UniProtKB/TrEMBL annotation:
Domain ArsA/GET3 Anion-transporting ATPase-like residues, every copy: 20-293
UniProt-recorded name of the protein: ArsA/GET3 Anion-transporting ATPase-like domain-containing protein
Organism of origin: Spirilliplanes yamanashiensis
One Pfam short name: ArsA_ATPase
PANTHER family attached to this UniProt entry: ANION TRANSPORTER ATPASE-RELATED, ARSENICAL PUMP-DRIVING ATPASE ARSENITE-TRANSLOCATING ATPASE
A single GO molecular function term of this UniProt record: ATP hydrolysis activity
Length: 378
């Protein structure tokens, strides 16, 4: 890592009571989920904070590393956390977008209306597979956790960064969807007093409904009508809450941590996300550069290879010669990683970074998460 780069003080971040949300984001496969879990463990054990880790990534790595058989939409307390002296707690959960969607419906409609919505084919499709629903519901769930004021710290593990950008875009995308001309036309009957889908609320809507009916059929149009009518009564409040959550993400109570590996694609993604955060005036706390390599032997690659060749020529100490060649390869890898990391630090010199040394094996338990936490705070 370049010596001019400021070092990220992770312990100061986790201990700061004004920081209520930490969002970990970055490309896939860079250790983002492990980093989020390690931050949660350290915040609970070292700093006595009542912490919940929310993963939006459907992979099971978080549950496995925390020793849980499963994660669902409800926070589960993590056992085996040493909080006797700190008084903290650690909980973890994984976003279930359909269940969260169902909770929104139940909270904002009466039971009979909720059952009608649940049975609607369009709702079933949108709540399970519709593009963007996961990000909408992530904003809803984060807003729920924050509004309860039950947690000292919420650590969010996002999907790979382009999806995480969708997470940031959710309020605006939802507003565009609800304000779209076609949706307004479909909502016209509900807004006119609940009359039939096929009543001519206006001449223009009558023409529109007949055309759509010919294309998709009467029953499908009726299902769609019922769905958008439900949207009209339910989603105004969700849009407002999502926009409030977006404002929370811009507030100084939130800290965004970029997670990257010293690889060109991962660092490029981190730069892309950093540019977006700066443009959106969101607080970028720092970069976690994961899985870096280093050497403590003061011998460059060329000297190592020359020494190995000399030993080979002497016909002696083959093991030592092999070790020197391994060292030369490690030095070259370290140099390449430093050059890749320099691309980010050159573009964002004010963003503090912290390197985390590559581990000899995958992290799969709380002890391993403690090791990562120690490396983050070293």
């Amino acid at each position: 890592m370049p010596t001019a780069t400021a070092r990220l003080d992770v312990d100061a971040l986790l201990a700061d009571p004004s920081i209520r949300i930490v969002v970990c984001c970055g490309a896939g496969g860079v250790g983002k989920t492990t980093t989020a879990a390690a931050l949660g463990v350290r915040a609970a054990e070292r700093h006595g904070r009542r912490t919940v880790v929310l993963t939006i990534d459907p992979a099971r790595r978080l549950a496995q590393s925390l020793g849980l058989t499963e994660l669902d939409n409800t926070p589960r307390q993590v056992k085996g956390i040493d909080t006797d002296s700190s008084g903290g707690e650690l909980h973890a959960m994984m976003l279930d977008m359909k269940r969260t969607f169902d909770e929104v419906v139940q909270a904002h409609t009466d039971p009979a209306r909720a059952q009608e919505i649940f049975a609607n084919p369009f709702y079933q499709a949108m709540s399970s597979t519709f593009s963007g629903t996961q990000e909408y519901m992530a904003m809803e769930k984060l807003g729920q956790l924050r509004s309860r004021d039950e947690w000292d710290l919420i650590v969010v593990d996002t999907p790979p960064s382009r999806s995480a950008l969708d997470f940031l875009d959710a309020p605006a995308r939802l507003s565009r969807f609800l304000d779209g001309r076609m949706l307004r036309l479909l909502m016209a009957p509900a807004r006119a007093g609940g009359r039939s889908m096929f009543n001519l609320v206006t001449a223009s809507f009558g023409v529109f409904s007949r055309v759509v009916q010919k294309v998709i059929g009467a029953q499908l149009l009726t299902d769609l009508s019922g769905f958008v009518a439900a949207l009209d009564s339910m989603f105004g409040g969700f849009r407002q809450r999502a926009e409030r959550t977006y404002q929370v993400l811009q507030d100084r109570e939130t800290a965004f941590l970029l997670v990257a590996a010293p690889e060109p694609d991962a660092v490029r993604e981190a730069q892309y996300f950093a540019e977006r955060l700066v443009a959106e005036r969101m607080p970028l706390a720092g970069l976690v550069l994961n899985r870096v390599h280093s050497t403590t032997l003061d011998l460059d690659a060329a000297a190592s290879l020359a020494a190995a060749d000399a030993l080979d020529a002497a016909g002696d100490q083959a093991v030592t010669a092999d070790a020197l060649r391994v060292h030369a390869a490690l030095v070259r890898q370290t140099e390449r990683e430093a050059q890749v990391a320099q691309r980010f630090t050159a573009a964002f010199p004010a963003v503090p970074t912290v390197p985390v040394t590559a581990q000899p094996a995958d992290i799969h338990d709380v002890d391993g998460l403690r090791t990562i936490g120690d490396a983050l705070a070293a």
